[in-house]
What does this fold into?
Amino acid sequence: MKKANNMVIAQSGGPSMVINESLVGAVLAARSKRTGARIGRIYGAVHGIAGILARDYVDLRKVSEKKLMAIAATPSSALGSCRLKPTREDCRRIFEEFRRLSVGYFFYIGGNDSADAARIVAEEAEKDGYPLVCFHIPKTIDNDLRSCDHTPGFGSAARFVASAVKGDDLDNRALGGVKIDVVMGRDAGFLTAASALARERPDDGPHLIYLPEVPFSEDRFVKDVKAAMKKFGRCVIAVSEGIRGKDGVAIGAKLGSGEVDSHGNVQMSGTGALGDALARLVKAKAGVKRVRADTFGGRAYRVAYAARPIADAAKETRSLPREFIAKNGHDVTQAFIDYARPLVGDLPPCAVL
Amino acid sequence: MKKANNMVIAQSGGPSMVINESLVGAVLAARSKRTGARIGRIYGAVHGIAGILARDYVDLRKVSEKKLMAIAATPSSALGSCRLKPTREDCRRIFEEFRRLSVGYFFYIGGNDSADAARIVAEEAEKDGYPLVCFHIPKTIDNDLRSCDHTPGFGSAARFVASAVKGDDLDNRALGGVKIDVVMGRDAGFLTAASALARERPDDGPHLIYLPEVPFSEDRFVKDVKAAMKKFGRCVIAVSEGIRGKDGVAIGAKLGSGEVDSHGNVQMSGTGALGDALARLVKAKAGVKRVRADTFGGRAYRVAYAARPIADAAKETRSLPREFIAKNGHDVTQAFIDYARPLVGDLPPCAVL
It folds into this structure.
């Protein structure tokens, strides 16, 4: 058997703002004469382990450095992702494929479930006597990886949460009532906790923060909201999607679709059910009328002003004109693009592999 | 009666990123010797017309220019907002108050309902013979004001929608399935249409766009999704919160709380009900397994790397440590702030009046 000096790299789990930075960093290191002297071919498996099983690869030695830098600056997973927990049989097929390709190094970028997939591959390789060096490259915006001070992706995600809650607090200051923001984080409250960075003044929100680490009680929640309304005349609440009662079952999981991935995680993102349920609770039990819940998931235009009668703007709304609506009824026309592009400016450039 | 050369300015309707720019622009113009020569006192009414009825004002001649510039850069309504349609009796009390304060100019910043409130005040003033010049300063992120090419706020909101849908399209490319993004716009589809600016390549999403201007059919929607899944193997959908069936009633309004404001608008924002209902429909009728719905509503850290066994990161998650959780169970500690602040960096400065 010839020396297995080729490598496979893949991405897994939820895509994030920074997961392509890790991919490009690892690929550039592998391509470097200094750090990657022992590395031969660099296979990028498409959609994680699923790409190995399907023999679907991108040759990452052939991608230009310019394109790699554009990929690094692009959100989401350039190689595609998956949520697959490899079985004994999957591993057997993976090693067969690795043997065929002379792969001796396997890099898996992802969070704790992806690390677990890499651990399974490493342990099965050892059992089978297949010589494989496995690496897990940490990702994960919710910062729940053990043995990391913080995960790549947490800083930018935490900044988003803090900025969004800060904006909501200013809106709540203007219109009053209760605002509930549901924040990602199935088991760890780091991202929800980051909402506290929005505070500057003593009466700034978030006024209440509910974390998955603290058992959630509906009665206590209603009491807390009433107390905050009394003190501030308004209330901004940051709540983790993963809050759970004394039984340890996530409340959002009970309200959701019940969909479960191969790692046994119940779907919680991509639904507004938890926020809506808490909003109904506040309306019914805390007697607050205005309650809103959200779940966080340039210009070069010549402007001219003219005096117009108020009645021209009053009450009735302007609809999107017919010429901006595509004939199929579910799209827009180029005329709309031409109208809106100068208002919005160019979006940051993105690249795909 | 002495010459009524004082002015009242107020903000109304939903707060936005740019409504304080309009406030500060008008105040600086009124304070300028050139443009505001005829203006005496500048009263900022707190919470719109409600502030006039409650005699609650900020003296906007006394606020420093530096503070005004900080206010301009701050989102939301610095004077507070309201959603109040003035009655005949309200107007009578407003003119009594204006007479007391020698107010001859009234500026109301807001969207079409605020313009309607200003129109009512202007018409009632004329009926009563009270000499008042009324101005409506256009705001409104959803661009539905007649007689504006575009409203202040539409550009930045459209940019947000396009950026968010672009990010979702990249995620959808990585993980597949259907992603539904519900976008603001009760009667006008401009913001939902702006999602089209996310497209760069022929297979980029959004693949389907549903606007309030086009009658929505569930059967047609399911067929469209099936066709997009067949063509692209995935599907990103932008849908307006205001889509309505042939009966003209907004589907989101039927699913929501039924809450109605004084202008007769049914609550549609701040709930995930429409997105969740469409996701259920796609799962049930289009046979797609992975369906997600969302409703849009610096660093100076020393990093050190060390090799760690994969098992340390695998499967089990790290929870927020006890020392980061406040004793009351609904807040975080200073220790968490100290941990997270360098990761997130300072947020943009905000000012309140």
In short: The mean pLDDT of chain B is 86. Chain B touches chain A through 120 residues (CB under 8 Å).
